[in-house]
Each structure stands twice: as C-alpha cells, then as structure tokens.
Description:
Layout: E1 3-4, E2 7-8, E3 10-18, E4 21-30, E5 37-39, H1 44-57, E6 61-63, H2 72-75, E7 81-82, H3 87-108, H4 111-133
Parallel strand pairs: 3-7, 4-6
Antiparallel strand pairs: 1-2, 3-4, 4-5
Helix pairs in contact: 3-4
Amino acid sequence: MSYCCGASMIGTKGTLKHYRTQVHNVPLLFCPVCKRIEVHYKVENEYEILAEYAHVDGTSEIDFQDFVTEDEESIFSNCVNVESEEPLDIVKSQIDMALDLLAVAKDLGDEKWESELKKRLAVMSRRSAKLKQR
C-alpha cells in the first residue's frame, strides 16, 4: 500500500508519457487529494525498461498490457481502493481510513501527521458533499 497526504492512494490504470512515447494501461497509484501519480511499485521496473526500449526504438505509443502479463487483481491487491469502484464508496473508505489514522496520529502525538490527515479529511469531505449532490 502506498501513502500520500497522510493516507492511502487509489489504484488505477492510465497513460504516462516517457519522452515522446505514450505508454498506455500502466498500473498507477493516485492520490485523490493532491493528485500525485506514481507507477505502481509492483511494475515500476517493467515500466522503466519498456518505456526506455520504446523510446529508443522511436515508438510513439505502446500498450503496457501487451508486454506485462501480471493480472490487475494481483497488482492492486494491496490497494484499499481502485478507481473502478463507485466514487462515493471510495470517498467514504478514504474518510474512514483517515479518521482511523488520525486517532493513531493523536495517540502518537505526531502533530505533522495529524495536520496532513485533517487537510485530507477536509478535501475528502468536500468531495463527498459534491458526490451526494449529484
């Protein structure tokens, strides 16, 4: 599980640009608060090798799935949420996790972590309200 802004990131797939090459269907981790994106650590080495070879070959687009056979379920098995879930369910899960972690941060007396979690909760609460209005 990867963390950002005090709590967990969401598993998804997306397109990344490596120089002039677009690599599609790359397993990613996404922070719903600060929007940070990183290649999922289980496929990071494969991504770097494939992207570099594609760039050297002058390929403009390549599909990650065509070269890496690890299934999506095993890649994202350690993620608390994946993007294919209902958006409101994701937000609720992220809020629950942040509240649990906030209690831990308070017990530890970690003021910086508490602050990060409170900011995360504020963002996720606003997102929850917007989703409920729809």
